[in-house]
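Thread title: Can someone regenerate the structure for this chain?

I was given the following input by a collaborator and told the matching structure tokens would be attached. They weren't. Posting the sequence so someone can regenerate them.
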Amino acid sequence: MILTVATTPFEGQKPGTSGLRKKVPVFAKPHYAENFIQSIFDSLEGFEGRTLVIGGDGRYFNSQVIQTAIRMAAANGFGRVMVGQNGLLSTPAASNLIRKYKAFGGIILSASHNPGGPDGDFGIKYNAGNGGPAPEKLTDAIYARTKTIGSYRIATSPDVDLGRIGETRLGSMAVQVADPVTDYAQLMQALFDFDAIRALIATGFTMKFDAMGAITGPYAHRILEDMLGFPRGTVMNGTPLPDFGGHHPDPNLVHAKELVGLVMPESGPDFGAASDGDGDRNLIIGRGMYVTPSDSLAILAANATLTPGYAKGLAGIARSMPTSCAADRVAEKLGIGAYETPTGWKFFGNLLDAGKATLCGEESFGTGSNHVREKDGLWAVLMWLNILARRRESVAGIVRKHWAEYGRNFYSRHDYEEVDAEAANGLMTALRGKLPALVGQHGIATADDFAYDDPVDGSRTTKQGIRLIFADGSRIIYRLSGTGTAGATLRVYIERYEPDARRHAIETQEALAGLIVLSRSIAGIEQRTGRAAPTVIT
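Best answer:
Regenerated them for you:
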């Protein structure tokens, strides 16, 4: 039976850079999740009888909302739902399923790298038929619908048994429970030389992968240990848990400190990596060497032809605006396009679909390619392993040779988390007002509020972050993040290019010290936010 349930709008159901994210108690309010899911369906056309992919990262409240989404999909006319076993799907694996099986779209339940648990974060986002996050035109329509919604449709039925692989029916709709790993693992085998990686392992090469109690555990166990042959125990924290085992599942130097402590010493394994809550981010470290996400993108691009999936070369490289310019130097040498987009993976979708870019990356530990339409943590790890297998050099050796050839972009991000939202917005407004006067001061050549003109569809996106670009190529970027659920997060990105290899060994914060001081004084960060220092430095 299908029910039409009367409801009233909730304020603030505006999707951010990757869907709607709020605290669990907010999503647990009666009708809250249902309102947003119905608003998604009301903003779509032509899905009757089509397939919808549903899955999530296993965080607290995941199983309840998946059952709700399945019932609502049935009530709204979808012909089939594909759902990961036990409701689990990494974000890149969901994108792959949408693309491989030509689904109409997908609903992904995740708050990505944000903490989980009863008082943690939850999220819902819609991915379109290309497998990528909904474009702004669609998220704007969804938000508009959340403000006027008066009812939602839902089927009444017992919970679907998500633990059993196979197909059942919910009224006229088929529900297919699929192994969440198999299709993704097959895609990775098509892209990378597993035999070469096995040969590297046979030499005694060692690694540690930290799944952080999150979704990539089953994928890493299957691919790294079962298929490639790394010994059991290579994968740490490999069981997805509703609260991520107390981890903050953000793969950076602060939250992945257990992994960093194992790999960085001279006695550590050769290679270390981690992924986040929903499997779309990555941390790459080697013995004695942390690889920044910006450098990782550039190094993967420079070495891509060593892997089977990219042996014919790259069409172009795209990066988010705050990401360092290191990848631009690789694109220039390769003679391919270099694209600078706003933050948010959805902005890469048009470039990938149009064949203008092959590799994409964000400084926030996200890297990916045209194999799906999301960033992909385990993909990046496997690409690094393939390159290490072909070059037979250490991570540190590869990074230093890259710097010697292209120069080093010293780079750091300073996050001021859970800042009072009014204060953060006031800081950005004041800074925008100062931009014309800043040109010519402190060596600043350009000061603007980044706007992006999409080269594929001609759309324009404004107010994407304040850029101070210096005459020597250095940059200071200010941006408010759209991924948090409490207050505002002010992100400050500091970058300095150093061509002289004799100066590449300087510690990053030391190399950037002058720009760091300037970044705080120009924006009046302490005066406006009360914060004398950032919460997290990466």
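The chain has a mean pLDDT of 96.
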